[in-house]
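Tokens help. Consider this.
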Amino acid sequence: MTDTQHQHHAASFGAVAADYDKARPSYPPALFEAIERLAGRPLRGADVLDVGAGTGIATRLLAERGARVIAVEPSAGMAAQLHAVSPQIPVVKGVGDELPCHDASADLITYAQAFHWTDPAKSLPEALRVLRPGGALVLFWNLKDRSVEWLAEQERRHAAALPSYHYYGVMNAVTEPLSRHPFRVVNERLRWERTITVDDVITDLRSKSYFAVAEPELRERVLADDREWLTGLFPDGRVVEPYTVDVTVAVKQ
């Protein structure tokens, strides 16, 4: 993907914020237990920046565990959806490459489904600037388990039908850039699943950037084909989606 295409995809989420908030997957409790264990500190009472917070799916879960969370989000549409659902969570406009924060002001910086939108040459030094000594940068992604055949077939279908299709893959190649900075890095992978309706699957797909940037006629045709295909696979309308969650915790040294 070129830089221009990358920016186009990154800017596409505001228009699909409601679909994103409605149908994107949440995160299992085990993820936050792993974050606390790997970071060596509880979330309760921690000052957390949730960068690329989107509609606040992870932000709310961090707050529920007692963290003092500030959401950092560049998209006005996504930030508006976050504020509408969770008005108690402060939201500031910004990006990870240039955090709108004071030096040494955060115990944790989290990126949920978001670090791949940054330039690590900028976002990692920014994280080091903003983190307090012993603080941690926490990166995590929900990834559909493509070892399951129907999910692998769905990926093949989308890759063939959509010129804009992309899949970032496991760990998003973050470990190597982190190794060039003063972090102690640990990784973990968790597994979980959710059961949703076929309608929810289609809504979730609408919130993907590669659907959001597609030509409307093509997008609707692919979604209609997916609905028919999924209904054949899941005639009761209930879809079990297995996920892995890749989490990287980088503790500032």
About this structure: The beta strands are 47-51, 68-72, 91-92, 106-112, 131-144, 183-197, 238-252. The mean pLDDT is 94.
